[in-house]
Amino acid sequence: MKITKAKQSHIEAIISIDHVAAQDEKRRQDIYEWVPGGNTIVAIVDGAVVGYAVLEYTFFSQGFIAMLIVAEASRRKGVGTALISHIEDICKTEKLFTSTNESNKPMQALMQSMSYEPSGVVHNLDEGDPELFYFKKL
Ligand SMILES: CC(C)(COP(=O)(O)OP(=O)(O)OC[C@H]1O[C@@H](n2cnc3c(N)ncnc32)[C@H](O)[C@@H]1OP(=O)(O)O)[C@@H](O)C(=O)NCCC(=O)NCCS
């Protein structure tokens, strides 16, 4: 598996593995902005994009994993772990945050497996599905 900075030529592959992008124009627009912004990484296996992640610094100027998606067929093979590990290596702040819905048990399990600490809950973003924040001191 290779983890590398996403290029313009990866955009269509990123969209094709992102189940939300298939139906959501706003997500596709985000991807078109994230990639040239230089803050997107991709995981590549046998020449194919199998996952991507986005690191931003817009959350109180701290590193924040704004997006992490692994292609359905490539899950539970360490791709999510590899993407987050790479972000931990390149993150410019000492603190790294991310968040996920309370309903997202796979992401919570991944956070636990990578020793992230719970860092608070924000209600009222998604109706009836609070946002759980996580933190790691790098
Ligand atoms: C959450 C997600 C990124 C995890 O990626 P992944 O590549 O499958 O994760 P990994 O293979 O690195 O998993 C590492 C560990 O996390 C835990 N884990 C990950 N997915 C899990 C699941 N579905 N159930 C239970 N534990 C899970 C396990 O401890 C796993 O280790 P193991 O496979 O040796 O048991 C992936 O499920 C995904 O893309 N989901 C849809 C998008 C999403 O929810 N993104 C989160 C951002 S809000």
User: Helices and strands: which structural class?
Assistant: alpha+beta
Rounded mean pLDDT score: 98
Coarse morphology = globular
Molecules bound to protein: coenzyme A
Outline the low-pLDDT stretches: none
- What kind of sheet is the major sheet? 7 strands, mixed
Tally the helices: 4
Give structural notes.
By secondary structure, this protein is of the alpha+beta class. It has a single domain, classed as Aminopeptidase, CATH 3.40.630. Strands 1-2-3-4-5-7-6 form a 7-stranded mixed beta sheet. Strand 6 and strand 7 form a beta hairpin. The chain is globular, with a radius of gyration of 14 Å. The model has no long low-confidence stretch (mean pLDDT 98). The structure holds coenzyme A. Coenzyme A binds next to strand 4, helix 3 and helix 4. The site of coenzyme A (COA) has 17 residues, from strand 4, helix 3 and helix 4.
